[in-house]
Amino acid sequence: MKYLLLIMLTILNMNAMDLKPWTRQIEKLSDEEKYIIINKGTERPFTGKYTDEKSNGTYTCKLCDAPLYKSSDKFKSSCGWPSFDDAIDGAVRRVPDADGRRIEIVCNNCGGHLGHVFEGERYTAKNTRHCVNSISLTLKPEKNEKDLNMSYAYFAGGCFWGVEYYLEKLDGVKAVYSGFMGGHVKNPGYYEVVSGTTGHLEAVEVIYDKSKVSYEKIARTFFEIHDPTQANGQGPDIGNQYLSGVFTSDESEKNTIKKLIALLDENGFDVATKILPATDFYKADEGHQNYYNKKGSRPYCHGYKKRF
Ligand SMILES: [Zn+2]
Fold it and tell me: What is the CATH number of domain 29-141?
């Protein structure tokens, strides 16, 4: 009996103590983050930054940084919050919710509130949905975690929003991301790149299915949706970060681009596009992805023009 009491006390104590070691981290949270993570609030549906996030990486705890979910377990549930059908082993703890009905999920390391878990909804084979507040998570992108069934290509043609907008329309293209490539600073921020001091070009990563669309087809489109003859930027965007370039990963891509530039040359275009070796691609913040579709407007300095 005495032993049982001790165990019970320990359990009670654990729950109460949970967040204590994290006082300093808690102080750094915004009011909204505290409301969700500490006071167990819920963000409004369809407002979280990771609801429709599709990039590869690991989702860590906003409060303590412990790895919680893998992007490969994320699925589209249309419920308005990021949904995962599994968590990293031992990372997430289930506790009865104060409402007496639902099962709350918390970070097993720090006790921070994540959301709720539901079973039996038949969304995926695992029949489990971890419904998590975006604000409780941080996505750590893993740039080496590439989809081995897909091919990757990299282009720079001025403001990345316009290049992303048009290349994404091609059949066989799975996704296009805006980001930076070719500089000498690791993990540059948008404003650092815009300042022109990091050497990066605004670039896009095109993820495509080569059984459905060829590298050449994508490259041809790239040359016809921006002006490859402009040598100082693109449209009204002047500066090194807006230069026209193709980052090639192998000889075959390089030869394809050389061939297309020669064809354009025959057609009377004095091409300024640089052929550069592909280096680390840094994805821009979520706020810079899918910009025109989110805004419901069209690119200001890109458009289709037949050049081949
Ligand atoms: Zn945590």
Answer: 2.170.150.20
Which CATH fold topology does 151-295 show?
Peptide Methionine Sulfoxide Reductase; Chain A (3.30.1060)
CA of 176 to the centre of ligand 1 (A): 32
Q: How far is the CA of 99 from the centre of ligand 1 (A)?
A: 22
**CA 12 to each of CA 6, 8, 48: distance values in angstroms, whole numbers, following the listed order:** 10, 6, 32
Q: Known catalytic residue: 110?
A: no
For the chain, the residue count is 308
List the domain boundaries for the chain.
Answer: 29-141, 151-295
Distance 116 CA to ligand 1 centre (A): 15
Over 90: is that where the pLDDT of 268 sits? Answer: yes
Q: How many angstroms is it from 197 CA to the middle of ligand 1? A: 36
Is 131 in the active site? yes
- Paired tokens of 22: 């994290």
DSSP-H helix ranges across the chain: 2-17, 23-28, 31-37, 160-167, 190-194, 215-225, 251-266, 291-295
pLDDT tens figures, 195-204: 778 889 999 9
Choice among 61, 107, 110, 159 that is catalytic: 159
Write down the pTM of the prediction.
Answer: 0.57
